[in-house]
Amino acid sequence: MLVNTSSQGDSTWIPNSGASFHVTCEPQVSHFDGPDQIFIGNGQGLHINGFGSSSFLFTIDSNICFKLNNLLRVPSNTKNLLSVNKFAKDN
Prior knowledge:
Layout: E1 3-4, E2 12-16, E3 22-24, E4 37-39, E5 45-47, E6 50-58, E7 64-73, E8 80-83, H1 84-90
Parallel strand pairs: 2-8, 3-7
Antiparallel strand pairs: 1-2, 4-5, 6-7
């Protein structure tokens, strides 16, 4: 399952069953400066510089709005990752 939230740019969300948070590199998330990092599968730490929430409209059968709470902005990440666990709990 890939979710594309916009027809402009690459706003595809890739489901990740091992992710604890939703992660994006998009600048729409509120900026903050802090020492926080997320750690990826190889143990590398990636700096977080934003935190917020977002939503997208799913229009296949009906107009359903899904929430992405606790969305982290990680500029060095190149793909939008959707935490399957958080998505299921929040929606």
